[in-house]
Amino acid sequence: MKPDRDKQDKACRFSQGKNAPAQHQLIELFWQLAPGFTRWAESRMEEQGMTPQRLRLMGLLMDNGSMTMGALSDELGVSATNVTALVDALEKDGMVERKPHPTDRRAIMIQMTAKAEKKLAEGCAVFKDRVAELFSSFNKTEQGQFVQYLSRMRQALVDRGILEDLDAAKSDSAEKKSA
Q: Which in 46, 76, 149, 175 has the greatest CB count within 10 A?
């Protein structure tokens, strides 16, 4: 039996709107929202040259201390090429520096500079508050529900091996530091 070509074509059409199954509408919304949210966050940056991606990378370094490029790539969920570009730009701005790995001659550690620590301490909360304005149309209960739904979605991606389990990674990191 041949597949119904017309049915397949309709299933793959974009912008089916409210006629599409809810799961398909969610896919379309996430495809639209991800780049839109990034543009929104970027528009809330006051400092020239700083982007949400650079801020996330520096936040990881602030939380975890020095990290390898590979660990940054895994944590950020981006390619090694993207991490290299982020680190290059941050290094040029004096925000991070490359240091030799203490035990692996092949690896390079990325660490924040004092300048970056000062900037993060001064501006991170303010930046997050500006970005969070986007959620002001949701009341506190809706915001809590939204967090629960997105957390479940994130866990589904962890369960499928797409994202790293941050809780497990943090406990592994804490064990390594105490050893």
A: 76
CB neighbours (10 Å) of residue 135? Answer: 12
How far apart are the C-alpha atoms of 67 and 60, rounded to whole Å? 8
DSSP label at residue 108? E
Nearest-angstrom CA–CA distance, 46 and 77:
25
Is the pTM higher than 0.85? The answer reads: no
- Backbone φ and ψ for 101, nearest 5 degrees, come out as -65, 140
Q: How far is CA 101 from the centre of its chain?
A: 25
- Structural domains in the chain? 50-133 (1.10.10.10), 138-179 (no CATH)
Q: Which of 6, 12, 30, 17 is nearest to 149 (CA)?
A: 30
